[in-house]
Amino acid sequence: MIRFIILLATLAGCASSLGLHVRDQYKRTVRVFVDCPEGVGVGSGVVVRDNTVATASHVITCEQGPPEAIVIEGYSAVVTRDVPSEDLALLRVDGFQAPPIVLGPRPEVGARVCHTHAHPRSGRSCGEVIPAQPGVAVKGTLFHTATTDTGNSGGPLWDDAGRLVGITTHWIACNNSQICGGRATPIRAEVLK
For the chain, which residues make up each domain, given as ranges? Predict the structure, then answer.
Protein backbone atom coordinates (compact mmCIF):
# COMPACT_ATOMS: atom_id res chain seq x y z
CA MET A 1 0.00 0.00 0.00
CA ILE A 2 2.81 2.41 0.87
CA ARG A 3 4.45 1.75 -2.53
CA PHE A 4 1.16 2.59 -4.25
CA ILE A 5 0.85 5.88 -2.35
CA ILE A 6 4.46 6.78 -3.22
CA LEU A 7 3.77 5.97 -6.89
CA LEU A 8 0.66 8.20 -6.90
CA ALA A 9 2.56 11.05 -5.25
CA THR A 10 5.36 10.72 -7.81
CA LEU A 11 2.92 10.76 -10.73
CA ALA A 12 1.06 13.76 -9.27
CA GLY A 13 4.36 15.61 -8.92
CA CYS A 14 5.24 14.92 -12.56
CA ALA A 15 1.84 16.12 -13.76
CA SER A 16 1.89 19.29 -11.68
CA SER A 17 5.38 20.23 -12.93
CA LEU A 18 3.91 20.37 -16.44
CA GLY A 19 1.07 22.65 -15.34
CA LEU A 20 -1.35 23.85 -17.98
CA HIS A 21 1.41 24.49 -20.47
CA VAL A 22 1.05 21.08 -22.14
CA ARG A 23 -2.53 21.76 -23.25
CA ASP A 24 -1.51 25.14 -24.64
CA GLN A 25 1.50 23.59 -26.39
CA TYR A 26 -0.72 21.12 -28.23
CA LYS A 27 -3.17 23.89 -29.20
CA ARG A 28 -0.29 25.89 -30.71
CA THR A 29 1.25 22.97 -32.66
CA VAL A 30 -0.06 22.57 -36.23
CA ARG A 31 0.47 20.38 -39.29
CA VAL A 32 1.98 22.11 -42.36
CA PHE A 33 1.19 20.66 -45.82
CA VAL A 34 3.32 21.86 -48.74
CA ASP A 35 2.17 21.07 -52.30
CA CYS A 36 5.40 20.84 -54.32
CA PRO A 37 5.85 19.98 -58.00
CA GLU A 38 7.42 16.68 -56.88
CA GLY A 39 4.63 15.84 -54.41
CA VAL A 40 3.21 16.81 -51.04
CA GLY A 41 5.50 17.37 -48.06
CA VAL A 42 4.33 17.51 -44.47
CA GLY A 43 5.89 18.96 -41.34
CA SER A 44 4.93 20.72 -38.15
CA GLY A 45 4.68 24.35 -37.07
CA VAL A 46 3.72 26.54 -34.13
CA VAL A 47 1.26 29.45 -33.90
CA VAL A 48 3.34 32.33 -32.50
CA ARG A 49 0.70 35.12 -32.63
CA ASP A 50 -2.48 36.05 -34.51
CA ASN A 51 -2.32 34.76 -38.09
CA THR A 52 1.38 33.75 -37.83
CA VAL A 53 2.95 30.28 -37.81
CA ALA A 54 6.67 29.54 -37.42
CA THR A 55 8.17 26.41 -39.00
CA ALA A 56 11.49 25.16 -40.33
CA SER A 57 12.55 26.67 -43.65
CA HIS A 58 13.23 23.25 -45.14
CA VAL A 59 9.60 22.23 -44.46
CA ILE A 60 8.37 24.80 -47.02
CA THR A 61 11.21 24.27 -49.53
CA CYS A 62 10.50 22.19 -52.64
CA GLU A 63 13.20 20.46 -54.69
CA GLN A 64 11.72 21.29 -58.10
CA GLY A 65 10.51 24.87 -57.78
CA PRO A 66 8.38 27.00 -55.48
CA PRO A 67 5.46 25.46 -53.58
CA GLU A 68 2.16 25.53 -55.42
CA ALA A 69 0.30 25.82 -52.11
CA ILE A 70 0.92 25.73 -48.36
CA VAL A 71 -2.00 24.63 -46.19
CA ILE A 72 -2.15 24.64 -42.38
CA GLU A 73 -5.12 23.01 -40.65
CA GLY A 74 -7.27 23.69 -43.73
CA TYR A 75 -6.21 27.34 -44.14
CA SER A 76 -4.05 28.69 -46.98
CA ALA A 77 -0.71 30.07 -45.86
CA VAL A 78 1.70 32.57 -47.41
CA VAL A 79 5.42 32.81 -46.63
CA THR A 80 6.16 36.19 -45.02
CA ARG A 81 9.73 35.49 -43.93
CA ASP A 82 12.17 32.75 -44.87
CA VAL A 83 15.62 32.55 -43.26
CA PRO A 84 17.25 29.40 -44.74
CA SER A 85 20.54 30.08 -42.93
CA GLU A 86 18.66 29.61 -39.62
CA ASP A 87 16.21 27.01 -41.03
CA LEU A 88 13.31 29.20 -39.92
CA ALA A 89 10.25 30.49 -41.76
CA LEU A 90 7.18 32.53 -40.82
CA LEU A 91 3.84 31.98 -42.54
CA ARG A 92 0.73 34.16 -42.58
CA VAL A 93 -2.43 32.16 -42.00
CA ASP A 94 -5.56 34.31 -41.86
CA GLY A 95 -8.01 32.94 -39.32
CA PHE A 96 -5.62 31.82 -36.56
CA GLN A 97 -6.19 33.73 -33.34
CA ALA A 98 -3.67 33.45 -30.53
CA PRO A 99 -1.99 35.81 -28.09
CA PRO A 100 1.73 36.38 -28.69
CA ILE A 101 3.77 33.40 -27.58
CA VAL A 102 6.13 33.72 -24.63
CA LEU A 103 9.77 33.17 -25.58
CA GLY A 104 12.20 31.64 -23.15
CA PRO A 105 15.94 32.17 -22.83
CA ARG A 106 18.31 29.73 -24.50
CA PRO A 107 18.34 26.66 -22.25
CA GLU A 108 21.63 25.53 -20.72
CA VAL A 109 23.15 22.07 -21.21
CA GLY A 110 21.25 19.68 -18.94
CA ALA A 111 18.01 21.72 -18.96
CA ARG A 112 14.79 19.79 -19.58
CA VAL A 113 13.06 20.56 -22.89
CA CYS A 114 10.05 19.08 -24.70
CA HIS A 115 8.97 19.28 -28.28
CA THR A 116 5.48 18.87 -29.66
CA HIS A 117 4.73 17.91 -33.22
CA ALA A 118 1.73 17.40 -35.45
CA HIS A 119 3.13 14.91 -37.97
CA PRO A 120 3.06 11.99 -38.52
CA ARG A 121 0.72 12.21 -35.51
CA SER A 122 0.36 14.62 -32.63
CA GLY A 123 2.87 13.92 -29.94
CA ARG A 124 5.24 15.21 -27.31
CA SER A 125 8.70 14.08 -26.34
CA CYS A 126 10.95 15.35 -23.57
CA GLY A 127 14.67 15.18 -22.99
CA GLU A 128 17.53 17.44 -22.04
CA VAL A 129 19.80 19.89 -23.81
CA ILE A 130 23.15 18.29 -24.66
CA PRO A 131 26.47 19.74 -25.87
CA ALA A 132 26.99 20.36 -29.60
CA GLN A 133 27.56 17.14 -31.52
CA PRO A 134 30.97 16.52 -33.16
CA GLY A 135 30.96 17.09 -36.91
CA VAL A 136 27.76 19.16 -36.88
CA ALA A 137 28.90 22.75 -37.30
CA VAL A 138 25.64 24.65 -37.08
CA LYS A 139 26.24 27.85 -35.13
CA GLY A 140 23.77 28.42 -32.35
CA THR A 141 21.91 25.13 -32.78
CA LEU A 142 20.33 23.53 -29.71
CA PHE A 143 20.97 19.80 -29.40
CA HIS A 144 18.65 17.71 -27.22
CA THR A 145 17.74 14.14 -26.35
CA ALA A 146 13.96 14.44 -26.92
CA THR A 147 13.02 11.78 -29.47
CA THR A 148 12.62 13.41 -32.87
CA ASP A 149 11.48 11.79 -36.11
CA THR A 150 10.74 12.55 -39.75
CA GLY A 151 7.81 14.98 -40.00
CA ASN A 152 8.57 16.62 -36.64
CA SER A 153 10.56 19.39 -38.36
CA GLY A 154 9.11 22.82 -37.76
CA GLY A 155 7.53 21.85 -34.46
CA PRO A 156 8.18 23.89 -31.31
CA LEU A 157 10.77 23.16 -28.63
CA TRP A 158 9.59 24.26 -25.16
CA ASP A 159 11.42 24.81 -21.89
CA ASP A 160 10.11 23.46 -18.59
CA ALA A 161 8.09 26.64 -18.01
CA GLY A 162 6.20 26.21 -21.30
CA ARG A 163 8.10 28.98 -23.12
CA LEU A 164 9.11 28.61 -26.77
CA VAL A 165 12.90 28.21 -27.06
CA GLY A 166 13.35 26.71 -30.53
CA ILE A 167 12.01 25.21 -33.74
CA THR A 168 12.84 21.56 -34.42
CA THR A 169 15.01 21.19 -37.52
CA HIS A 170 16.55 17.70 -37.66
CA TRP A 171 16.91 14.45 -35.79
CA ILE A 172 20.22 13.09 -34.53
CA ALA A 173 21.28 9.49 -35.21
CA CYS A 174 23.28 7.48 -32.68
CA ASN A 175 26.25 5.37 -33.73
CA ASN A 176 23.92 2.49 -34.63
CA SER A 177 21.68 4.78 -36.77
CA GLN A 178 18.96 4.75 -34.12
CA ILE A 179 17.34 8.15 -33.59
CA CYS A 180 18.42 9.49 -30.22
CA GLY A 181 17.59 13.17 -30.21
CA GLY A 182 17.18 16.27 -32.27
CA ARG A 183 18.40 19.73 -33.00
CA ALA A 184 16.52 22.98 -33.02
CA THR A 185 16.99 26.56 -34.15
CA PRO A 186 16.80 28.90 -31.15
CA ILE A 187 14.09 31.54 -31.46
CA ARG A 188 15.06 35.20 -31.27
CA ALA A 189 12.34 37.79 -30.66
CA GLU A 190 13.51 39.98 -33.55
CA VAL A 191 12.96 37.13 -36.04
CA LEU A 192 9.30 36.87 -35.05
CA LYS A 193 8.56 40.55 -35.74
Answer: 26-92, 112-192
